[in-house]
Amino acid sequence: MKPLLHPSVEDVSVEAILHALSDPVRVAILAELAYSQCSSTCSAFQNVIDKPVPKSTLSQHFKVLREAGLIRAERKGIEMHNTSRCAEIEERFPGLIASIVGAYTRQSQQKLKRTKSTRRTA
């Protein structure tokens, strides 16, 4: 099996982080991993947004997050266990991940409120 690429924290760039987090599914994955105290398998994120995400698409999202240096993945049998590298990134770019995840969380809450409001009026 091919070894997994995990860039050193010194090689992580703001551009790679912003590119990786330009997709709403990847931001949702990172937000959940950032708040989690333990590793999570890829399959735990099949419904990370309001609709199911195919396994092949999830694999690609995790690859982008891993190669950007945002997560660490470890093979355990046939599963990949993923953990956030937010603490390492925080040392290199203070406040960056917290700001992005916080903005995503606020945006998601606002969308949810609008959806509930629209359903009541319909």
Task: Describe, in short, the structure shown.
The protein is mainly alpha-helical and about 120 residues long. It has helices spanning about 15-20, 25-35, 55-65, 85-90, 95-120, and strands spanning about 40, 70-75, 80-85.
For this entry, give a set of tags.
53% helix, mainly alpha, Arc Repressor Mutant, subunit A, 5 helices, 122 residues, 3-stranded antiparallel β-sheet, globular, single chain
What does this molecule look like?
The structure is a single chain. 53% of the residues lie in helices and 11% in strands. Strands 1-3-2 form a three-stranded antiparallel β-sheet. The termini are far apart. A hairpin with a 2-residue loop joins β2 and β3. The chain is mainly α and 122 residues long. It has one domain (9-121): Winged helix-like DNA-binding domain superfamily/Winged helix DNA-binding domain (Arc Repressor Mutant, subunit A). The model has no long low-confidence stretch (mean pLDDT 90).
